[in-house]
Design goal:
The complex is a heterodimer of chains A (about 180) and B (about 350).
Chain A (H helix, E strand, L loop, with lengths): L1 E2 L2 H10 L15 E4 L6 E2 L15 E8 H5 L6 H11 L3 E8 L6 H8 L3 E6 L1 H7 L7 E6 L2 E7 L14 H9 L1
Parallel strand pairs in A: 4-5, 5-6
Antiparallel strand pairs in A: 2-8, 3-8, 4-7, 7-8
Helix pairs in contact in A: 3-6
Chain B lengths: L5 H8 L2 E2 L22 E9 L11 E5 L5 E5 L4 E5 L5 E5 L1 E2 L5 E2 L2 E6 L5 E5 L3 E5 L6 E6 L2 E9 L4 E8 L6 E7 L4 E8 L8 H7 L2 E6 L2 E6 L4 E5 L5 E6 L15 E2 L1 H8 L4 E7 L5 E9 L2 E9 L5 E7 L3 E4 L5 E5 L8 E8 L1
Parallel strand pairs in B: 7-8
Antiparallel strand pairs in B: 1-20, 2-28, 3-4, 4-5, 5-6, 9-10, 10-11, 11-12, 13-14, 14-15, 15-16, 17-18, 18-19, 19-20, 22-23, 23-24, 24-25, 26-27, 27-28
């Protein structure tokens, strides 16, 4: 169950329904951490890619609760949009949606002009697969290996240190 | 497509309430199409904004540039762009962020009579650009968060719609002095509503504004009444909007529950999203219903007495209305690309 305060409702209002509003936080400030050489994890795509990512390409895996997407001010969409536009098929976006989707995700993708493969998982299935991943999270994957993960310490209210944005982090592996 | 009931529209248009005996003289003077007579919306071509490599149109808020072409505030890209009449990109400015020359979510760019361009950001920031739209000359903080919309009255004043310090209970319309950087008047609180709907009104209750000469038209998202004010906040009159069908908000917002509950609630009422003033004095009100997560847009035109001029119709989203000619700019009728627009003319 999603519990809402008036403040959080106001934020949701800013993000939904074409109300032309805005909200704060919500993955706006995201820091990436390299997994480091000793923490390399393998990662198998959840689905066969529609268009195979080139060898030097990058898969960006964005996992989130569907309900939280309603309260999201586009989240990392701007950075992802820029990466897709600049690098084309070298960037593949996979969105892992946890929970039921009452017509939220596709309008979101359309609104944000994102080309993504959406995978729906139950929370249980997600935990089984990504045991240590908080939600929302973004990971950068190349050749099946997770290179970096972003953990949103700013869900809604926090103001975290920004060390490396999604766009900059991805570029370090694409340039 | 929703069927349009002419009788229902005409019945609705009969309702007109006058709360002030002092209307301004300009709201009833028009040129072009006589008011109160049916006016057709005639599609008249398309326009495509240039999207060179460094630019992507995502969520454009558009105003017609009095110097020709368009000013676009792209709220998703946090960028201000100037286009020629044929869609050629002339300049761009800004990026996402909270620093100088950065925007959170700009929702409007308008040219002042002096030639400078004023940009309104949802975080309450107001930025003045030079006439070319490539350099900021001044930044002001209005204290309105969110700042829903802004439109200039003249070089000195702008009318703003927003909430003071994000408060749930607040006046929603304000006049901002661009020189002294102060609010000079605030008016239009949320219309009265049942206590049980207070959270819903705070969530979904925003105001849209349009200015014509010295009259400010104020549209509240959840109301079927348009109000006309003087810039000092004196109510001129209230006009019942001749919607074909406007589903009023009647259910409290679900404070807990799955996303589906929120979506169902969002789909349970209509939203009066924006008001425009056409060149001939026609007031255009756009409203939408949420269907399967998408907005279905509708449009109606009427005069300041509430008489229909443009019958209610389903249209794409209306982006901008020219103040100088009968042109209306919509999202494209057949394309979903946000940089492709359809043009319509108001014809008798």
């Amino acid at each position: 169950m999603v519990h809402r305060s008036l403040a959080s409702l106001m934020r949701i209002a800013l993000a939904t329904g074409g109300l032309s509003l805005v909200l704060w936080g919500c993955m706006a400030a995201t820091s990436f951490r390299s997994t480091g050489a000793g923490a390399v994890r393998s990662y198998a795509p959840l689905t066969p890619p529609i268009t195979a990512v080139q060898n030097d390409g990058l898969e960006i895996v964005w996992a989130f609760e569907v309900g939280d997407l309603m309260a999201c001010d586009g989240g990392p969409a701007l950075a992802l949009r820029h990466l897709q536009r600049e690098f084309g098929p070298r960037v593949r976006l996979t969105m892992i949606a946890i929970g039921e989707d009452p017509h939220i995700i596709q309008p979101f993708l359309k609104r944000e002009r994102l080309d993504a493969e959406v995978v729906r998982l139950s929370r249980r299935a997600f935990v089984r697969r990504f045991a240590d991943s908080p939600l929302p999270s973004i990971r950068l994957v190349q050749r099946g290996v997770t290179l970096a993960t972003a953990r949103d310490t700013a869900w809604i209210d926090g103001v975290p240190l920004r060390t490396l944005g999604i766009e900059e982090a991805a570029r370090t592996f694409l340039d | 497509m929703k069927p349009w009931s002419r009788s229902a529209v005409l019945a609705a248009s009969m309702a007109l309430t006058c709360e002030s005996p002092a209307p301004t003289d300009d709201v009833s003077h028009t040129r072009g199409t006589p008011l109160g007579e049916p006016t057709a919306l005639v599609w008249n071509g398309d326009i495509t904004l240039a999207d060179p490599k460094a630019v992507l149109t995502v969520q454009p808020h558009v105003s017609v540039d009095p110097r020709g072409g368009f000013l676009v505030a792209d709220s998703r890209e946090a960028q201000i762009r100037r286009y020629g009449p044929d869609g050629t990109l002339l300049s761009r400015f800004g990026r996402k962020g909270s620093g100088p020359d950065e925007f959170r979510r700009p929702n409007g760019a308008h040219r002042l009579p002096s030639g400078r361009i004023v940009v309104f950001d949802t975080n309450g920031k107001l930025v003045l650009l030079d006439s070319s739209g490539t350099r900021s000359t001044e930044t002001q903080q209005t204290g309105l968060v969110p700042l829903y919309q802004g439109t200039p009255l003249n070089d000195e004043y702008a009318v703003l719609s927003g909430r003071v310090d994000g408060q749930a209970v607040t006046n929603l319309v304000h006049v901002w002095n661009l020189r002294t950087r102060q609010l000079t008047s605030s008016f239009f609180p949320s219309p009265s509503h049942p206590e049980a709907l207070s959270a819903a009104y705070a969530y979904a209750g925003f105001a849209s504004i349009a200015v014509r000469k010295d009259t400010v038209a104020v549209l509240f998202a959840l109301s079927d009444t348009l109000r006309l004010y003087t810039p000092t906040g004196s109510l001129i009159r209230s006009v019942k909007i001749p919607f074909s069908e406007f589903r009023k908000l009647r259910k409290p917002i679900p404070m807990s529950g799955p996303p589906a509950a929120m979506q169902q609630w969002r789909a349970s009422f209509s939203v009066a999203s924006s008001v425009f003033w056409a060149e001939n004095g026609t007031i255009l009100v756009q409203w939408y219903d949420v269907v399967a997560g998408e907005n279905e847009w509708h449009l109606v035109g009427f005069d300041s007495q509430g008489r229909i001029t443009v019958p209610p119709t389903d249209t794409p989203k209306l982006l901008a209305v020219s103040p100088n000619n009968p042109a209306l700019f919509f999202e494209h009728r057949h394309s979903e690309e946000p940089n492709a627009w359809s043009i319509a003319l108001l014809h008798r």
